[in-house]
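User: Reviewer 2 asked us to show a designed sequence for the structure in our supplementary figure. I'm pasting the structure tokens here. Could you produce the per-position amino acids so we can include them in the response letter?
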């Protein structure tokens, strides 16, 4: 029997066990064809059906309106930092970027190569000194778009509301929060996400783009990043990452079997609360994010003595609790609780944390 291991990696992250088992079962013989899905031509009917089903399942799960295109592209989340700017700054080369952490700042650094970027600091400090998120910004009503990162994977900061940007299209880097709860897609101009957290293997990026935004690209946009060209070619202008797209499709089917995003949202909230409540009640661990801005997906926490970090990680690993080391910028620990993490994994983590705290207090 396999030993149960819980992988708290921020990404590439844990995928649902059933998805991995299904992929394994059909790895060398896909649907009786005698070949792997990886070996199928992307232009053949068998693969086209896989691709179309994945798109339809994502549309169903997120209730994506018909006036949005869904693209399956390459280059991960960071590729989209460039693609967004190249696709939206051809006519009006200025954009507002709300910065709240490392990933939204990285998006700025790519957009600045393309146009005029105005940076809006989206961080606030609460009365108790904890980190929070601004709820209003001095936006430019003539900007081509407003970009933000709804969930900062490194700092563990998450918006629990959608910013109102009026008529200016809102662009969201949802890499680490997509599919974690229901959202109203119609509030966004573009939603994009690197796949390696809640979707599937790294390298793939999913882009959901409103059709009226497909006509303002810079002339120098590379064809594989050109949303209009890719939409016209059903994301198959060149050979797509076929296996990653197939695996994403298995994840979407798994999500449907779980009951969809309402059920996932409830589960994710419950999992996150379990860990935050334990940390808040403890004087051994702490989390420095204000409750209004705490991420359901990525939960950084510190031990009261940094000198115990190595022992914590080593003992956690021995109990099958993997990849808890925090990002080097934040230090301490980080538990990522994406969709594939069962509640039992969070319960096991809390039980271990409690034992560790008692032994070291
Ligand atoms: N945006 C966010 C919020 C992320 O968490 C990450 C990666 O972890 C990225 C972008 C970059 O994604 P990629 O490594 O696929 O380029």
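Assistant: Here is a per-position design you can include in the supplement:
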């Amino acid at each position: 029997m396999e030993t149960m291991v819980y992988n708290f990696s921020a990404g590439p992250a844990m995928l649902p066990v059933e998805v991995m088992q299904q992929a394994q079962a059909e790895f060398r013989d896909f649907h009786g064809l005698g070949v792997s899905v990886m070996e199928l031509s992307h232009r053949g009917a068998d693969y086209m059906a896989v691709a179309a089903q994945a798109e339809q399942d994502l549309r169903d799960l997120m209730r994506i309106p018909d006036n949005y295109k869904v693209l399956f592209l390459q280059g991960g989340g960071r590729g989209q930092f460039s693609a967004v700017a190249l696709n939206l700054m051809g006519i009006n080369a200025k954009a507002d970027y709300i910065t709240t952490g490392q990933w939204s700042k990285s998006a700025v650094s790519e957009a600045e190569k393309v146009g005029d970027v105005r940076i809006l600091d989206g961080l606030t400090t609460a009365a108790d000194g904890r980190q929070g998120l601004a709820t209003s910004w001095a936006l430019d009503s003539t900007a081509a778009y407003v970009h933000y990162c709804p969930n900062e994977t490194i700092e563990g900061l998450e918006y629990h509301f959608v910013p109102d940007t009026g008529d200016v299209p809102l662009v969201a880097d949802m890499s680490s929060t997509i599919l974690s709860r229901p959202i109203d897609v119609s509030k966004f101009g573009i939603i994009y996400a690197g796949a390696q957290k809640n979707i599937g293997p790294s390298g793939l990026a999913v882009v959901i783009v409103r059709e009226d935004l497909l006509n303002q690209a810079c002339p120098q946009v590379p064809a594989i990043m050109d949303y209009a060209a890719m939409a016209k070619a059903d994301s198959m202008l060149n050979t797509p990452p076929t296996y990653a797209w197939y695996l994403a499709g298995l994840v979407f089917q798994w999500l449907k079997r779980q009951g969809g995003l309402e059920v996932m949202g409830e589960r994710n909230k419950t999992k996150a609360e379990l860990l935050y409540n334990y940390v808040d009640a403890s004087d051994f661990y702490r989390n420095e994010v204000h409750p209004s801005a705490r991420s359901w997906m990525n939960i950084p926490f510190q031990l009261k003595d940094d000198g115990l970090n190595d022992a914590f990680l080593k003992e956690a690993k021995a109990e099958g609790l993997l990849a808890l080391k925090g990002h080097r910028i934040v230090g301490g620990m980080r538990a990522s609780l994406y969709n594939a993490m069962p509640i039992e994994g969070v319960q096991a983590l809390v039980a271990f944390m409690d034992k560790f705290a008692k032994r070291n207090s």
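For the response letter, you might also mention the following. The longest helix spans residues 261-281. The chain has two domains: 19-258, 260-360.
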